[in-house]
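ARCHIVE CARD
Drawer: 12
Card no.: 0347
Subject: one protein chain, sequence and derived structure
Cross-reference: see card 0346
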Amino acid sequence: EDEPLFVPLPLDEESAGQLELQRLSLCMSDLRSRLARTARADEWPASSKALWNGPQRKVRTGDWDEFEPKAVEEEQNEEEGDAEPDDFPVRFHWRNGSNDRDSLRIGSKRAFAMLRELEEKEAIEKANKGAEYGAMRKIERPPSFTDTLLHEILRSLLAETSTLKYLDLRGNGLTREDAGVLMGLLQQAGNLSRLNLIPVIEDEALATTQLLIDGSGIPRPRDYNPDEEDEEIPEGEAFARESLEAEYVRMDEGDGFIFDSLVTPQTFPELTCVELRRLEIPQDTTLAHITDALLQLPSVRELRLSELRLSGRGASLLLQAVAELAPNLDSLNGLPLKALVQKKEAPGEVVPLELPDDVEWNDFPLGAMARLNLWSVATLRANSEEGAFRLQGFHLTDVGLRGLCVMLRHFAQQVPAGVRMQMPLKLSRIDLSGNQQITDDTVADLCHTLQHPSMGANLRNSLRELSVRACVRLRSRSALELQSFVMHMRDASRANPDGSAGGLQLINGIDLEALQTATRSGAGPGGGRSSGLPMVLRSFVEVHGPGKGRYRPQLPMLSECDTLFFASMLHLWPHIPYCHMHIVIPPADLEERGGTAGLKAGGGFLTWGNSDIGTNQGVFGGPMQVTNDSPFPPPPSSTAGIAKAVQAHLESAKKLFEACPFSTQMRLSVSPTVPGCEEMLAEADYRVLGISPSAKNSMANGGQPSTFQRIELRMKAKAHKRRRINARKNGQTLPAEAPPQRPLYVNNINSQRAHCCFRTLYGKDEMEIEHVDILPDERFAVSLPTDVDVSVAFGMATSVDLQHLELGPLHLAGLSKITEMPVLTHINLNHNHLGDSGVDLLFKALVDAGSNVVHVALSENNLGDEGATMIAVSLGSLPRLTSLELCDNFIQERGSMAIAEAIGGLAVVGDDVEAEEAPAVGPLPVLSVDLRGNRSRELGARRWAEVICNHPDLKFLCLAQNELGLCTKEYFLDLVCAAVASPACSVLDLQDNFPQAYDVEACVCRSVFMGNEEFCRQCGASYPQKACKCGRVFKTGERACRDCGNARNKKAAPLMGPPPRDVIEELLADLPPGEFDPAEVRRAVFIRRHRGGGSEKKGRQPQQGQPRPSPSVAATPIGGTGVPPSPAGSMAAPSSVAAD
């Protein structure tokens, strides 16, 4: 991309000569607002002359009389004397009242107040002087500094020497006075041909037949290919970034005045077509200028009003003008309005006019048909295709929605009630989602219209979907109307023999037919919840303000209507198993944060300084927040807008869950945008039931795959490509039809996998899609501002899943205020930065609230021994907590031993409690502990061996990558023996605990090649074929080059891998027959298939010469030294098994 071009404003002659601009677009730059916030009157010599002009301006710094006041005679001589030359050195003394020695600071409140006082005094003196000569005393205050500077900018752009031929100033907050100044400058700008897309050259305007005022092209600089010889790089063109990024262009009062002044019957006598497209017109005064101009154009025969953002009152004003133009308009958005009016006024019975299919139905065709009562002389084509009725639901206001209701009632009255016949209206979908203007009154009117007795039969083959999601102005009344409508459709489906709802299938994403089918199949209140379709709601945080950013979400946030409606659906259909609220946060680009897009609520600019500067309106215009009151004023938080947006989404989820049934699981997950799938996540799912990848039945009946199902397909292709690339880099070859790598076991104790959004929504399964395929590294994480309080989620959700958000202790500071957590069962805070202090806050809050949490996941949270000790201390006060996931932290021997002792039955005390010996409280009912990627080492292994051989409930223990065999194999073998003797342990994972030789080769699947293996036992990849520096390719098993003697691998640190061959042989000889798979034993994974028994076995003898009891002997307390031996024998077992 080219470097940005800087255009100084006001444009001086030197810069204008260097740039030689011919096309300039400052569209949507908000010049007036920017000047009011960032420009100061006291930083310009001319505008602050009242502060520095005086006799001391000629005093040099350091003179002996620098601070001595001058005599009155000298001041009068200075005032009466001639002006000094331009090169005269002027010193700017900032005086303060009567004492000139107390200087003022630029931008301070006192400087503003004095400048305002002097300006007011000067205006009063001029008025009094005029009254002395008999004139009426009138105080004329000077224009504000913002107005003066803005007018100076306009004069510099349209100077006599200006080379501009194209200028677009829409969306800059211009007033009518600003537009008047601009219109007065057009005469001297002889080169200008277009202003705001309107031709200003007389000859071109006289010949113009079509006028397009577009808000999406602006027009953009044409694309060029520098490789083509005929293409020339455009020169003399400058477009503001906002003009290229804006999807809509705002027209202010001044823009409307320019349109009214330029577009007249005298300047455009041949104008027949006017098109206004993708414009935002918030002010009625602007619309008044536009409608006045349109009404004065008798030659216009075609009018297209497309994708306009108007208020309800503005749409009514523009519709009134359209109604007055109707007798002369041959086409209104493709609607033959003139012909319809003529048929309506014709005497006698007339044949209805068949409307074309290409009509763009928005506020104005629908409103005109309803206001002029033209549906009686119009009809739709009976053989038109499905969906031919193009409804612009996103841009409708109450005007258009009322017109839509009139149309529906008209077609419903054409067919008698109870008579089934095909309806000419091919309206398959009423999609008003994301609308910013419709209100409760018109939504209620629409619901009542659709409940007409004949409406269901007439729309059976047409209307299938109604959506008013994410409409910010809809309140609880609309939710109640929709709920009543759904109940009406449910009763109608019960009355129909086939059980169908008689027309509508989807209402706000709720599939009525699927719910009725689930109810009839036994998933109702008498059945189970497992067979029902889950409800998944997704919201998208807009970090750049509404409608800004690279990807604009279609359904950004739940409205008040949405929260109450979805909660009522859960009450009506209690067999819906759970409601999952998923909040997506896109990573904010740092460059855009500091840019003009801003992150303030409402899209304001970020400023620095005291907020109370210029609060009084006066000659300086609006409030200014720029000051030099302090040498280094602290900048405001650039993440304030993000924090407010995220907090609003959390509060919306809280309102939803508070209204849901108590028996329904309420899951909340917040995660960053998945890289490579941003455009998919920004899209809207038209269904909310069964859209997760696991819900394959959601694609039945010809349905389209949901967003998450399409993301899963893309992730699978991405993962397959990644494996191929990594294998190629490692010198390996994967089989052409290599099956996905299957894990040796699946730990789903307490259904913990169902409470991770990366598994349930994005398809993570450790086979085809791994976690690295979804979020490759921390670069794609979101640094959630510390102003966000996530503690609100713990008091109302069943499951809290907050991953890759860089959460710290400050985000959990509000947990102490949460006194009740009645439904919380699962907490997943993996991949954050809680640290020991954050874990302390979390578990203290869980204990104080008496939480019934059953699973806590804190992987990759920088936990140390202090955090692990805090967890161990809290386990006794959380009796329902039965599974812990603490992978990839910094827990060493002390922390690992503390957790083992707490689970084994010793009460762990903190450092602030004095106790000679920890009292025994009995083993805790913990089922699963995952400590992968920590540093338990030999001491931790010994203590865990003592725990699992006696624990009655511990089913799963993972100590992989814990350096258990770094110094000796004995404690590793003790763990295996303890697992064999354990009454409950089903899976013991001890992978990657032994240091490997420096020349050991690792596969792309992270397994280690053992011996002279040609292929990997796990994934089937070939042995790495790597070349020596001399060019010779190493063969399998070679550790050094035969030609030059160079070593094959030279690693800086030893690779941790499976046990050595002698350890494996010892294990295979000692383990009981048939209980463990030899292939899994070689990888140090011990999955018990079934328990052996029968004859007496020999086992591995205990250390230090102490005898070990046989398995029939009573269990030894964890404080003892006995670890039972494992019987030896032959083995034969299945290849894999899954843990509960």
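Annotation on reverse: The chain has a mean pLDDT of 78. Residues 109-132 form the longest helix (24 residues).
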